[in-house]
Design goal:
With 217 residues, this protein is α+β, with helices and mostly antiparallel strands. 45% of the residues lie in helices and 22% in strands. The chain has seven helices and five strands. A five-stranded antiparallel sheet has the order 1-5-4-3-2. Helix 1 (2-18) packs across helix 7, helix 3 (55-63) packs across helix 7 and helix 4 packs antiparallel against helix 7 (178-216). It is globular. The model is unreliable at 70-85 (pLDDT under 50).
């Protein structure tokens, strides 16, 4: 228990300290599509894993991921709801990562079939019941209404060859004014350990599912 608390505190402190100093990646991690919508940002989270499956198979498996299958993810979601007083999730919501996020209000900003999808929304994540609002792609970058946070995230599969790919996911966020920046910095520091764990724990099931689909085919 003490180790878990220490790990949580360490990740939260790092998120607080790094807030506002995030930089775009270079090399293989660089993402020109993401840069089109948010080249500058306050906070970022990145992960990747090598998968023995073609890029198109890997990306589809990522889009179909069901976080409700993870007990850890469900526990983190319940903890957030308890702390913020959120309403329980809709039991009739669709399954699969992309279907769920779209039903919550996220919009598709750009898609390269079989390679990458960029999702985005404006929101106030510190609210107990968060509302996500999609914007047209040509309006997203310029949006600056005070009191909000803009968030973009990607599912991306880079081909290594015909039977291997590297799956990457990246989330970027930026506040639209100083008041929102203060609120979001506190929220990000508290929430980032859970976000980190969910993203990290989703990589191995994604890899397993994509590789299972290859064997089944």
């Amino acid at each position: 228990m003490a180790g878990t608390v220490a790990a949580y505190a360490g990740i939260a402190a790092t998120a607080w300290w790094r807030y506002g100093s995030a930089r775009a990646p270079a090399g293989a991690d660089a993402d020109p599509l993401l840069d089109q919508f948010m080249p500058v940002f306050d906070a970022v989270e990145r992960h990747h894993i090598t998968v023995n499956a073609a890029a198109s198979v890997t990306l589809q498996a990522a889009a179909d991921m069901d976080l409700e299958q993870s007990n850890v993810a469900k526990a983190i979601f319940r903890a957030r709801a308890l702390v913020l007083g959120s309403a329980p999730p809709d039991p009739n919501q669709p399954r699969g990562l992309l279907a769920v996020t779209r039903s919550l209000g996220w919009g598709t900003l750009r898609e390269v079939p079989g390679r990458e999808i960029v999702m985005g929304a404006v929101t106030q994540p510190w609210q107990s019941d968060v509302v996500f609002r999609a914007l047209p792609p040509d309006q997203f970058k310029a949006f600056n209404e005070p009191g909000f946070v803009k968030i973009v995230w990607t599912l991306r599969a880079d081909p290594v060859d015909d039977s291997k790919s590297v799956f990457r996911t990246e989330t970027r966020a930026i506040a639209t004014d100083e008041q929102a920046r203060r609120k979001f910095r506190r929220y990000w520091a508290l929430a980032s350990p859970g976000i980190f764990v969910i993203r990290l724990l989703s990589l191995m099931p994604l890899k397993a599912e994509a590789e299972r689909r290859v064997r089944a085919a």
